[in-house]
Specification:
Helix content is 76%, strand content 1%. By secondary structure, the chain is mainly α. A two-stranded antiparallel sheet has the order 1-2. It starts with a helix and ends in a 15-residue tail after the last helix.
Length: 405
């Protein structure tokens, strides 16, 4: 029963993100007329929020306030803000309101993870089965947007606002998740979430964090521009086709424990990194007609790209962190990946998009997508090689044989 409630939580959590984030570049470019720099800043809002909020929220949950209450408050406030953003046409207003919304939403990613882990005896085995409902929620969002042709409209933002409010109410019904160390002394390091930095003393964890940061820079190209890319080259119902990636995510999320137990964490992560390289080269050389199959394969690789790196990494962090630091540790890895790495990636990708933009004979804005996709492909190759050389943690293949202490 508890796992069912957690699964529904994950479904709504990722439905909210998927309904507006995937197609935002198409809406901002084709409807509002924002340029590449502005679109890059818009996608950077989630990264800015990830850098600021998880530290503080993680520490609050660890010390004083139950996780389900914090989740409820954040989603209620976020619902109002994301709905408001749907009414704004000027970047000077749109950007700060979207930033305020993401400051509410991004910490809920770490909180839903830590809340789930708290109610599991063996998170490494149980968490993928709960987290898979988040992927299904993302698929549902994409199908709605694609089938009803909402990609270039503000409607996805309105839907996100309504569902966020409902999520805020639902969170009050989640299993009670009390603070873990509310009687401990409060320190500046604790307030800032810096207690999680002690985990960096271990070489394997340090390398994992550094590589996670570096990989997220080229990754932002996919999250920000795939829908715009597909629409621009004439792929029909692009948002719906993109859900094929989440379909593969479900499959690989379920088989991921097999890969980690057989291959170990390092090889599993390397497979995930390699999938990003292959995907970007497929995007660089595919097109919307006779080579559409290359784009479809690139989308289908999302299951390997996401599960074998991000989800495996979340489990790794949970196993490495002591009980009293688990929320802060999840917040820390969110800061490094969804925060710092994605922010730099958003800024770089926005500059690249603008650099390779041009107007066609009809005056419509277009982009040289071949050149755009080759750049993150090369960056992902470099990161993968660095990880292969410097990460050594043979014992990590035993993660799935452990139960949570």
């Amino acid at each position: 029963m508890v796992h069912t409630r957690l699964s529904l939580m994950m479904f709504i959590q990722y439905f909210i993100w998927g309904i507006w984030n995937v197609t935002m570049a198409t809406y901002l470019s084709q409807t509002l007329g924002f340029d590449g720099h502005q679109i890059g800043w818009a996608y950077g809002t989630t990264a800015i929020a990830a850098m600021i909020s998880p530290f503080f929220v993680g520490v609050i949950v660890d010390r004083s306030i139950a996780a389900e209450k914090v989740l409820s408050l954040l989603h209620l406030m976020g619902g109002f803000l994301i709905y408001w953003s749907s009414t704004l046409k000027d970047f000077a207003w749109f950007f700060p309101v979207l930033l305020a919304y993401t400051l509410c939403y991004m910490p809920t990613l770490a909180l839903t993870n830590s809340l789930s882990f708290h109610h599991m005896e063996n998170p490494a085995r149980q968490f993928p089965k709960v987290r898979v409902l988040g992927t299904i929620g993302w698929i549902a969002a994409g199908l709605i947007v694609g089938e009803i042709h909402l990609e270039a409209t503000a409607v996805p933002f309105k839907i996100a606002g309504i569902v966020s409010f409902l999520m805020g109410l639902y969170c009050l019904s989640l299993p009670h998740t009390p603070p873990k160390n509310d009687n401990s002394a409060v320190s500046l390091r604790g307030i800032l979430g810096l207690d999680a930095l002690q985990l960096m003393k271990e070489r394997s964890f340090l390398i994992f964090v550094v590589v996670s940061f570096m990989l997220c820079i080229p990754l932002q190209f996919y999250y920000a521009f795939t829908n715009l890319f597909l629409n621009e080259i004439g792929v029909t119902e692009a948002a719906s086709k993109m859900t094929l990636g989440q379909g593969s995510e479900i499959l690989f999320l379920l088989v991921m424990p097999f890969f980690i137990t057989r291959l170990g964490l390092k090889k599993t992560l390397l497979i995930g990194m390699g999938a990003w390289v292959v995907r970007y080269f497929l995007f660089a050389w595919g097109n919307g007609s006779e080579l559409l199959w290359m784009l479809i394969i690139g989308i289908l690789l999302h299951g390997v790209c996401y599960d074998f790196f991000f989800v495996a990494g979340q489990i790794y962090v949970d196993q490495k962190a002591p009980a009293k630091l688990r929320s802060a540790a999840q917040g820390f890895i969110a800061f490094v990946t969804l925060g710092l790495g994605m922010f730099i990636g958003a800024r770089i990708s926005g500059v690249v998009l603008q650099h390779y933009s041009y107007s066609d004979l009809a005056g419509a804005l277009q982009h040289h997508w071949n050149q755009i996709w080759v750049l993150p492909a090369g960056a992902a190759v470099v990161v993968m090689l660095l990880f292969a050389i410097f990460f050594h943690a043979e014992k990590e293949k035993d993660l799935f044989s452990k139960t949570k202490s």
